[in-house]
């Protein structure tokens, strides 16, 4: 989770793009000023940003070096949420807590598949998903998930 509470410009924005989620405080700003400084982008921005916001918006953000706020970042698909400043810290803790309760193996496989989706085929995705399902069904976490569902309780995953 990239918790942007202030300015994320240049390398800060690049690091935010490397995260699974960008969550911004309402007053936060994000941008890519590198071209206007005679520098260049890093961290895979030229690959990641167009996939998130589309090529035209990526060009605008990169070529012009525009800074945008949290609401605009959400509107264009760059950020997950824009949160009022006073609620920001608590909201980030809540999101992190929710994520930490998920099954680690399942999360890892989902992250890998989503990251490779842009250059894979539908058939390769189906194959990888089947392999992931088969693997997960051999873990103790899978059994914990099944048991918790049957017992109408929240599962406690241990990465086993």
Question: Secondary-structure map with pairings?
Answer:
Blueprint: E1 2-4, E2 7-9, H1 11-17, E3 22-25, E4 29-31, H2 45-53, H3 55-64, E5 67-69, H4 70-75, E6 81-83, H5 88-100, H6 104-116, H7 122-136, H8 140-150
Parallel strand pairs: 1-3, 2-4, 3-6
Antiparallel strand pairs: 4-5
By CATH, the topology of the largest domain is 2-enoyl-CoA Hydratase, Chain A, domain 1
Mean pLDDT: 95
How many helices? Answer: 8
Q: Structural class of the helices, strands and pairings? A: mainly alpha
| Fourth CATH level, the homologous superfamily of the largest domain | 2-enoyl-CoA Hydratase, Chain A, domain 1
Query: What's the total count of β strands?
Result: 6
CATH class of the largest domain: Alpha Beta
**Largest sheet data:** 3 strands, parallel
User: How many domains comprise the coordinates?
Assistant: 2
> How much is the radius of gyration in Å?
19 Å
Strand content: 5-15%
Terminal residue distance: 24 Å
Lateral arrangement of strands in the main beta sheet: 1-3-6
Apparent shape = flat
Q: H/E series, N to C?
A: EEHEEHHEHEHHHH
Q: Residue share in helices? A: 40-55%
User: Which spans of ≥5 residues are poorly predicted at pLDDT below 50?
Assistant: none
CATH architecture of the largest domain: Alpha-Beta Complex
């Amino acid at each position: 989770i990239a918790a942007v509470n202030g300015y994320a410009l240049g390398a800060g924005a690049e690091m935010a793009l490397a995260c699974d989620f960008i969550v911004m405080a309402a007053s936060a700003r994000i941008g890519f000023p590198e071209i206007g400084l005679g520098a260049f982008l890093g961290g895979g921005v030229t690959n990641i940003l167009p996939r998130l916001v589309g090529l035209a918006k990526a060009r605008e953000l990169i070529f012009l070096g525009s800074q945008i706020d949290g609401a605009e970042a959400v509107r264009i698909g760059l950020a997950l949420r824009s949160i009022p400043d006073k609620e920001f810290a608590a909201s980030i803790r809540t999101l992190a807590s929710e994520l930490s309760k998920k099954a680690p193996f399942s999360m890892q496989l989902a992250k890998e598949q989503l990251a490779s989706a842009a250059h894979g085929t539908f058939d390769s995705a189906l194959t990888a998903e089947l392999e992931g399902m088969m693997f997960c069904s051999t873990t103790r976490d899978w059994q914990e998930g099944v048991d918790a569902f049957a017992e109408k309780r929240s599962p406690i995953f241990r990465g086993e």
